[in-house]
Design brief:
Blueprint: H1 11-21, E1 35-38, H2 51-61, E2 65-71, H3 77-86, H4 90-94, E3 101-110, H5 114-122, E4 151-157, H6 160-176, H7 186-195, E5 200-203, H8 210-216, H9 220-231, E6 239-240, H10 247-253
Parallel strand pairs: 1-2, 2-3, 5-6
Antiparallel strand pairs: 3-4, 4-5
The structure holds zinc ion.
Length: 256
């Protein structure tokens, strides 16, 4: 290990190891804030920025690394990588930009139970008119495209093997579902994680992740169990619980 680590496990520390093993290390040492869960405009209806714009902003802010974690695909990977390379040019340095290391990630939506898995496999009809409560739709309660149904999980590639695992996962998901609606079966995801152990870093996901879902339901024990179960598929310290600002929820839940 090139440098010592404290006992507190954080995304930033995992990031430090990602950089050591695969990504070129920026001019700044790990320890500064790095965004590890960002969506480009390849996450339809969930991201508005081109990959180049995200890297450009990180370079302006002096963020040493940036992970792009689009939904169910690695569509931004090549453009992200090329944009990050541009931040390491003499021209970028002369312009006062910081070098940025790109991290390729993926956000999956994993059906929480057998019923959800069946519904997800059935898919959602394209060009659905989406009118009224009886409109034909694949998932109950969904009238329009929103967060993908299922427990969200974010995976970051630590190296080439991790990237290949993400690629295979994305392909399998799309092959398992209807067009545009991939299906990520939990058992298959877990098997892929175990096989690629040490090559991926996991994050608990947005508020649609299993851990926040249980927390939002007021079941802290189930949330802890869920975090433990996912963490078991990664080397110690390579699974992190995401923190997000949920002020509205805190204000209304009474759980503060
Ligand atoms: Zn999400």
């Amino acid at each position: 290990m090139a440098h010592r680590r404290g006992h507190v496990k954080s995304s930033t520390q995992s990031l430090g190891r990602i950089e050591q093993t695969f990504y070129s290390v920026g001019s700044k040492m790990p320890g500064e804030y790095c965004e590890l869960h960002a969506h480009s405009n390849f996450s339809f209806l969930d991201g508005a920025s081109h990959p180049e714009e995200l890297i450009g902003r990180a370079a302006v802010l002096g963020m040493p690394s940036l992970a792009v974690t689009d939904h169910a695909g690695l569509y931004a990977a090549v453009r992200l990588w090329k944009a990050a390379a541009q931040t390491r040019t003499t021209a970028a340095r002369d312009a006062g930009l910081s070098p940025v290391s790109a991290i390729v990630g993926l956000e999956l939506a994993i059906p929480a139970d057998e019923r959800s898995l069946r519904l997800a496999r059935r898919g959602r009809k394209l060009n659905d008119p989406l009118r009224g409560g009886k409109a034909s739709r694949g998932w109950p309660g969904e009238f329009h495209a929103g967060p993908m149904p299922g427990d969200h999980l974010v995976l970051l590639a630590r190296n080439g093997t991790g990237y290949a695992t993400l690629s295979r996962l994305a392909s399998r998901g799309h092959l398992a579902g209807e067009k545009q609606f991939p299906v990520f079966e939990r058992a298959l995801v877990e098997a892929a994680l175990d096989e690629a152990r040490g090559h991926l870093v996991g994050l608990s996901g947005c508020r649609s992740g299993e851990v926040p879902r249980q927390l939002l339901a007021g079941d802290a024990e189930a949330a802890l169990a869920a975090a433990g179960a996912w963490a078991g598929h990664f080397p110690d310290g390579d699974f992190a619980v995401e923190l997000s600002q949920l002020r509205h929820w805190l204000n209304t839940s009474g759980l503060e």
